[in-house]
Amino acid sequence: MEESRRPRAVFMAFGTKGDVFPIAAIATAFACDQQWYHVLFITHLAHQSLGMHLEAKNITYVPVSTPPVLAVHQDGNISDSDQVFFSLHKKMIQQEHRKECLSAIERVFGDCPSIEGDFIVINFFSLEGWNLAELFQVQCVIVAPYVVPYSAPSSFECQFKHKLPLLYKYFQEPPANMVCWKDVIHWMWPLFTEDWGSWRSDCLNLSPLPFTDPVTNLPMWHSRLPSPLLLYGFSKEIVEWPDYWPSNAHVCGFWFLPMEWQFSCTKCREILSPNPYTCLVQKDNLCTDHADLQHFLTKSSSSCSPIFVGLSSIGSMGFIKNPHAFLMVLKLVLESTNYSFILFSAGYEPLHAAIQLICGVSSKSTELQKFTCNEDGILLFNDQLYCFSGTIPYSWLFPKCAAIVHHGGSGSTAAALRAGIPQIVCPFLLDQFYWAERLCWIGVAPEPLQKQHLVPERDDAADINQAAAALSRAIKLALCPEIKARASEIAETIASEDGIGEALRILKEKVVPSKLAKVTNHTS
After folding, report:
1. Which domain holds residue 505?
2. Which of 66, 101, 154, 239 allows an S-S link to 128, with CB 3.0 to 4.6 Å?
3. What is the pTM of this model?
4. Where are the transmembrane segments (predicted)?
């Protein structure tokens, strides 16, 4: 078979690292297992560090120039002119983004017709892929490491039924296992908004609405499609699987990243993960350049290991308006307790700058100099706060921590659950609120923190004192025997799950034609 006729698997994922990297882990597993496929991965140029890992597994990395997130004003104090400018700027980026997505998919499927076995995988932030799959007549699979991060407006069904009665009937009366209203209301509803409709008709020459005839705009009664395959990357032990979900939704287990992807230090990677692309820690010591981090983790008394604090991409989204106030909250907690914190500051330069500023005005004791000998680590506040601007696998770090304070991202949540440690969650947007409530419900976290109790916006003493008191209370609750025991119990329950392996198994069963699977097995 000619190279041009190899089946093609296109993985398209947009958003933050937590939105994109788990999908890349599935793409890597698929490329290793199905070597006859030409596998491509489309994502933001900002995730270019992922490129070398993908290309090492013969996956074509296709970057688009648009940013993963747009920082917005979160306090509401934005002028009308600024709001108009932001809206126009967002619209321009959206147009460019869709143009680049179309160009990327055209380069894959535009030169020759699609063949059996071709498919496109998308996450919830790459719905361009759904429309492009329709354009080039290939199957589309949806994957997500979290529950749907948005829900339809309360009036959506009523308005849909009123404005599109025939299409509503089409979804209400499908044959078994065909696309139906459950699919629409669960995740597909944004595809029926005017925003997508104008792009479909103006740029793709499709009907404005999916599942309608491009000439008559009537429902395609004669051409029913199966319910789209939807894979979720979380555990059934953690997330309930209700009856109203679509019939073709599958819960795989958490999608953990290969160890190889999680290091900012090459030496540490070579020591801890000599076997690339495993999710398990091989050894326990960091390199000599990061001996200070290792020492900080081991010097703490066994009765109170360090508490991890990490907010991932929340800063770049505009939620940490006053990094100095955030650091002062941590300082007050440390002064009133026997805790120690390890803070990850990677990915948000203003926070790192605030850390450096405090370090610059601190007394340069001998011990401080000892602990700030490398560019990744800075020790503050009487040696109780270690600020780390690099990255290290959570699977290595979290078992050495007493608890973690985080924003409720799916990756942090999963890693802490696997490590069996309590969590303190401060959600900011989308699925983070679900995870915060769910972790409290299953007993591994206290009630969620409000954002002003972790990242106050002002350097006001009263605000900082109030936040520090709330954070201290939450940590005390998280470290109670009941929550610690429950966290250990959950870890044992999910320890045997293989989320990536299950996702791969389902793709092979549901998407890869059996004749291609035989060819792949023969060639590999």
Report:
1. 3-150+187-196+227-254+498-523
2. 101
3. 0.90
4. none
